[in-house]
Predict the structure of NAD-dependent epimerase/dehydratase domain-containing protein.
Amino acid sequence: MVGSCGGAFSYWHQLQCRFLRLDLGDRAALCDALGQISPRVDLVMHFAAVAYVGESMRDPLQYYKNVTVNTVNLLDCMAANGIHQLVYSSTCAVYGNPEKLPVTEQTPPLPINPYGQSKLMAEEVIRWYARSQPWFKAIILRYFNVYGSDPQGRLGEYPRPELRSQSRISGACMDAALGLVDKLTVKGTRHPTEDGTCVRDYIHVMDLISAHVVAMKHLDNPPPLYNIGTGKGVSVKQFVEACQRVTQRDIKVVYQEEARPGDYAAVWSDVSKINRELGWRANFTDIQEGLQHAWQWRMSHPEGY
């Protein structure tokens, strides 16, 4: 998917956007689209990727093609059209099972699944490209676990039905609350954490958006790197309990000892660098509030868009 927007970011509700449905693997179509968009593109935000850990363990080639190779295609087409600015969406999955928490931008990346590895490889492609092209500027943002919806109910997340078994815990809980699945399965109860379930740093999608608005003003060469999170860890069990409180539905929860393939036990962010250097910090840090936004959207869109 490729989109272009025009308008003032401080008045984002007035933006006019045009979307083109494209496969980033189709280099010719991508290059043509970037060249034909008017007004001329001067900055690209690259969000496009498959992003399911379990799926990446079953089908690693899809991830290396979709994440790494397609990033190469995008950079190639940007160069062909004289576009020299990039905001790249990476992931905390590059950290794997870190020895020390919270993770900083200096924590060695040691991914344990193809999703994290393919993202790290894409990061390296961007860094090496920047070294070779002094006029190219970028920024790399490592997302932690994104959830939530627009508080005003205009946009929300609806997982593809065929990926429900791999769905993120927020989508899976909503599916169970709506009766789309008969139970919510929590995979992995023997991790070395306080309650045995995975611990994650859940970042609200609206905070993620605000981070990008700030980030586009701080592109550089070499590309700076920032964690995008809240700075605190929440266990999957705690997340599920918050979801039950929000939905007030009788959700059947099954705790499975066996962990999801490729999962890491715990990771949460140190966000002091982006707080200090860019002045950004998360505003939606109450998990229950963020889940309330997601539930409101799912209640008004029970079958998706």
